[in-house]
Design a protein that fits this description.
- With about 100 residues, this protein is mainly alpha-helical.
- Helices cover about 45% and strands about 0% of the residues.
- It has a domain of about 30 residues.
- The chain is built from two helices and no strands.
- The protein starts with about 30 loop residues before the first helix and ends in an 11-residue tail after the last helix.
Length: about 100
């Protein structure tokens, strides 16, 4: 005969604890002087960055324009290159003939 244990608990129920502390009370008076000084420093930073941007724009405008890129060649202008590469790949596959080194 085995003794069966009870699965119920006899503890008293407690209120759940709050995981976050209470929010701090808001200050009664706001310090506008601190905010105004922060705004003034940010305005000064913005004006210095604008001056830097203007100087960079002037430097870019003073540089000469890049040389135009040559237009793409007409079809068939690379026929010599194609024939050299064709000879190279054909001889690299053939073990009876030495590999042709193209002159590019």
């Amino acid at each position: 005969m085995s003794v069966r244990k009870s699965t119920t608990t006899t503890s008293t129920r407690t209120e759940p604890k709050s995981s976050s502390p209470a929010a701090p009370a808001a200050p009664a008076v706001h310090s506008h002087a601190n905010l105004e000084s922060d705004i003034a420093s940010l305005v000064a930073k913005i004006s210095s960055l604008e001056a830097e941007i203007n100087s960079l724009k002037a430097a870019v405008a003073a540089k000469p324009a890049p040389a135009p890129v040559a237009a793409a060649g007409a079809p068939g202008e690379d026929a010599h290159l194609r024939s050299e590469l064709k000879k190279y790949f054909n001889t690299s596959k053939n073990s009876k003939v030495g590999t042709y080194i193209p002159e590019l």
